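In the design runs reported in the main text, the only information available to the sequence generator was the tokenized backbone. The following block is the verbatim input for one such run; it is reproduced so that readers can re-run the procedure and compare outputs position by position.
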């Protein structure tokens, strides 16, 4: 049976976040350098977005570059930035055809100017697309995001725009980089590592976590659907009892 047909379209996650890991190991396994692995990661990006958009997933967020990734060798950082620029340009017609709205989270101002410009052009060009929101986490770190959020809320308290007593979870949600996205329902990490690595810590409070040994450049539509089927077989209780959920 077609794997996609096993998916209950009424119960798909609203927001899937992916830690795309294993590019370096994939390349090394082929006797190539790490950059070769990153270049071969784009098919997996394309297939995941396509798969998600076919089963009513509203948002997909990809961890493309972490705040910690700046510590990698300059050659690799430069290659990742060039890849970001060239792939955003190349994919724009497909984003338009498939109704993909592009979004970005992270310390975007720390990216090279050229990357910021291409990113902003693609975000503007796709802003009226409604099929799926594709968010790139770039120069992103969840702790940095939370610090930034606290600063912004504090400024509003000082300016008397917000009363301390009124601060609640919604206030925080509305000041995170992800203010316009739903909570993460499912987080997928490839390559066998079982860590969250400073990704969407607040937003993943109730997320289901799915780990697969598949290296990111080998990740395809079929692996994405495996994750969704696994997710649908879990019982999400949000702190309630199993009986309360099934009632
Ligand atoms: C992790 O693999 C991957 C990254 C740090 C970068 C992710 C980038 C891409 C998937 C390239 C394409 C993305 C865009 C947005 C153009 P790793 O290098 O840590 O692999 P390793 O753990 O095997 O060394």
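Verbatim output:
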């Amino acid at each position: 049976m077609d794997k996609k047909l096993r998916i209950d379209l009424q119960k798909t996650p609203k927001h899937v976040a992916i830690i795309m890991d294993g590019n370096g190991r994939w390349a090394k396994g082929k006797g190539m350098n790490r950059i070769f692995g990153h270049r071969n990661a784009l098919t997996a990006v394309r297939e995941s977005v396509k798969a998600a958009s076919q089963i009513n997933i509203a948002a997909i967020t990809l961890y493309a570059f972490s705040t910690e990734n700046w510590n990698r060798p300059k050659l690799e950082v430069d290659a990742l930035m060039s890849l970001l620029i060239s792939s955003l340009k190349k994919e724009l017609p497909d984003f338009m055809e498939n109704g993909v709205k592009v979004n970005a989270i992270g310390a975007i101002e720390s990216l090279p100017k050229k990357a910021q410009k291409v990113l902003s052009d693609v975000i503007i060009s796709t802003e009226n697309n409604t099929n799926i929101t594709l968010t790139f986490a770039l120069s992103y770190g969840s702790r940095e995001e939370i610090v930034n959020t606290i600063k912004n809320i504090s400024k509003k308290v000082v300016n008397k725009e917000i009363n301390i007593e009124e601060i609640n979870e919604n206030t925080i949600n509305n000041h995170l980089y992800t203010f316009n996205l739903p909570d993460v329902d499912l987080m997928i990490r490839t390559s066998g590592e079982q860590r969250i690595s400073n990704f969407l810590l607040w937003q993943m409070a109730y997320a289901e976590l799915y780990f697969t040994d598949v290296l990111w450049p080998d990740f395809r539509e079929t692996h994405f659907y495996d994750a969704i089927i696994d997710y649908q077989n879990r019982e999400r209780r949000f702190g309630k009892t199993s009986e309360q959920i099934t009632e």
